[in-house]
Every structure is written in structure tokens, then in C-alpha cells.
Amino acid sequence: MIELAIYDMDRTITRAGTYTPWLIFWAWHRAPWRLLLLPVAALAGLAYALKLVSRKRLKEINQTLLMGHAVDPARIAPMAEAYAKRVMDGGVYPEALAQVAADKAAGRRVILATASYAFYVEALARRFGISKVIATKSLRDARGRIIARIDTDNCYADGKLQMVKDYLADAGLDRSKVRISFYSDHFSDKPVFDWSDEPIAVNASAPLRAHARKEGWQIVDWH
């Protein structure tokens, strides 16, 4: 039996969300004038709350506003490293890193599965000690630049579950011969929780905590 330990990232390993802070970090260092567009981003957030735009489209809009339509990945790489260093400086639960290390020591394959963008998440994953990342991917233009459009689907809710299933298929892993532990803080990950063999609610939001108690799932709080 092959054992996998799959971790969500934002508010599971990290103490807070990383996507909006990443956009602000990028704008501050690369194009400070874009910070003037934050009120427009807030309006986009309101449109999402009113269900006028999808979560996927909201992310694309905010990336366009604060990073621009297209960015050379060579410009992103050093910024992702700098941002990862900043997040690691007090922005990560030590207990999460200890659990990742324990899962690896036990011979489990550790995977990071997050709705955040792969172009900056991979720098964080390396610092977590995780080599495999399943994350939201971006389309590229003819010049190889990362554009503010999501490739296929946002790695969120049912989309995350499908991407994890795709990983198993690509790796040639038979689900019946794999035991999966899944760590996350949010109820949006219910599809993956339900599919896993060992659902573990970490730093759980109120809806997830209530559901986890009802289902008898393990509940863990990292501080």
C-alpha cells in the first residue's frame, strides 16, 4: 500500500492566505502605481460576493490589475524566492513543517495541493520540504510569458479533487492501492476530504469544524 499525505497550503501550512499578499508584494516591488488599482480589485471582490463573476475569473482580474496581463517567468522567479523567504519568516506553522517531516520520515509521499498559483507556490514548497506541487496553473503567450489566465481550472473544491486524481493517473497509481491522508483548514476542500482515507481538519474554519465533528474526522489546531 502506497501512502500519500496531501496538504492544502493557505491557512493550513501558512498562517494566512498568500495570494493577495503576493499580488501586493509584486506590485510594491515591481510597479507601485498598480497599488492605486486596489479599489478596483475590491470591486471585483464584491462582484464575486454577489456571484456576478466566478472565483476563477476574480483571480484573473486581480492578477491583471496588480501584475499586468503578461509577465516573463524570469522576472517572477527571483520575486517568488524573495516572497517565499518573507512568508517563512514567521508566516508558517512550525507544527505543519514538523508534520510534513514526520510524514516523509514515515515513507509517505507528500504533496502540496493548493488553489494558489504554481508560479510562486513552488518556491514555498521547496522550503516546506515538499517536492510535488499541485496548484493553479497559468496559460502562456507565444513568447512564453505567464498571462493572467488560468490554464484549465482553478485548483479549488471539485477542481482540486480532479487535479489530484489526474496526478494519481499520471503517476500510474491505482486508487485502491493508495492510502491518502488529507490536511486542510477549509470546507471548500470537502470533495478531497470525502475522497481521502484520513481526513484531518487543521485550523478548521467554523463550517469545517462543525462538519468534521459530525463526521468524526480528526481535528488538529496548529499555533
UniProtKB/TrEMBL annotation:
GO molecular function, one term: hydrolase activity
Key words, A-Z: Hydrolase, Magnesium, Membrane, Metal-binding, Transmembrane, Transmembrane helix
Name the record gives this protein: HAD family hydrolase
Entry annotated with the keyword Protein biosynthesis: no
Keyword Hydrolase: yes
Residues annotated as transmembrane: 31-50
Source species, domain of life: Bacteria
Pfam families: HAD (PF12710)
Signal peptide (from-to): none
Organism: Sphingoaurantiacus capsulatus
